Amino acid sequence: MTSNREIHLASRPQGWPTEDTFRLVETEVPTPGPGQIVVRNQYMSVDPYMRGRMNDVKSYVPPFALDAPLDGAAIGEVVASEAADVAVGTTVLHGLGWREYALLDAAAARPVDPSIAPVSAYLSVLGMIGLTAYAGLLEVAAMKPGETVFVSAAAGAVGSLVGQIAKLKGAGRVIGSAGSPAKVERLRALGFDAAFDYHDGVRESLRAAAPDGVDVYFDNVGGDHLEAAISVMNLHGRAAICGMISQYNATEPSAAPRNLALVIGKRLTLRGFLVNDHNDVRAAFVRDVSGWLRDGTLSYDETIVDGIENAPSAFLGLLRGDNLGKMLVRV
């Protein structure tokens, strides 16, 4: 336990990041001080929001620093501890991914029980990803039983859970868009009532899949997907704006949506949200999702890339849509 590898941000990308945006750096394994722990990371998460943090702009979360390790959700085993209440061997969830060994204050780590589920699940269905889907659909968009729900990027980590939760909570019809025929078939297997490949035309495909309109739109894409959703949303429809991955690498402003005037007459609600604003529903989320996992009514997919050195490739693959479900790096 002497060598620690970590991924640094080497440059700020203009448009799409490349492998040269990142640098693999070897350092020494840190030593904990009073109240601190060292965690040997087992899995780390790569997420679309990380692209925004590579830009030096003001946002809801600070940008990544140049020539310093990136960070993000990770889970691992405590291998050294100077904290009385966290023993060596404890599995913890924390925010210092993109490295093999993480030094952090014990208060910044949350112990989890690895006997309940595979530890990777705490970075997906049982973690921030699952809570995002649950809170966005039920709190932000306030879905009601019998309503029609449209989910973009529905084969991704959040979208695939949104569609299933909608069905479990009584949605009348659930529609998903995805980026390949294989992903479309996966959505149907997960219980989506209709699914389409967005390469076949978003507006036309959505109109065909939702002949009676859409009541709730869960947006992970923005752009043409948001425009298409607005065009078919019913009176008093609600959109939970979770992400806009179609625009993260754009160097020019997006043309769509070009039909925002429809928001007025339809009295639509378009509401952006951050998952950390909805910790008040965490207990209900844990109760519902744990039960659905136990009885097999909720499924989740993971795409796992091995090796910290391949974390940049995993992130770039995520932006291209190479993943089915949650994209993770097994450190």
What is the mean predicted local confidence, pLDDT? 96
- The structural class is alpha/beta
Tally the helices: what do you get?
9
Tertiary shape: globular
State the helical fraction.
25-40%
Largest sheet descriptor: 7 strands, mixed
How far apart the termini lie comes to 15 Å
User: How many DSSP E strands?
Assistant: 15
Reading the helices and strands in chain order gives EEEHEEEEHEHEHEHEHEHEHEHE
Low-confidence stretches: none
Strand % is: 25-35%
Radius of gyration: 20 Å
Provide an overview of this structure.
The chain has 331 residues and is an alpha/beta fold. The chain contains 9 helices and 15 strands. It has helices at 49-53, 128-140, 157-168, 181-189, 202-209, 223-232, 262-266, 282-295, 311-320, and strands at residues 3-9, 22-28, 36-45, 74-81, 91-94, 101-105, 110-111, 148-151, 173-178, 194-197, 214-219, 233-241, 269-272, 302-306, 326-330. Strands 3, 4, 5, 6, 7, 14 and 15 form a 7-stranded mixed β-sheet that branches. Strands 10-9-8-11-12-13 form a 6-stranded parallel β-sheet, with helices on both faces. The chain starts with a strand and ends with a strand. The model has no long low-confidence stretch (mean pLDDT 96).
Topology:
Elements: E1 3-9, E2 22-28, E3 36-45, H1 49-53, E4 74-81, E5 91-94, E6 101-105, E7 110-111, H2 128-140, E8 148-151, H3 157-168, E9 173-178, H4 181-189, E10 194-197, H5 202-209, E11 214-219, H6 223-232, E12 233-241, H7 262-266, E13 269-272, H8 282-295, E14 302-306, H9 311-320, E15 326-330
Parallel strand pairs: 8-9, 8-11, 9-10, 11-12, 12-13, 14-15
Antiparallel strand pairs: 1-2, 3-4, 3-6, 3-15, 4-5, 5-7
Helix pairs in contact: 2-3, 2-8, 5-6
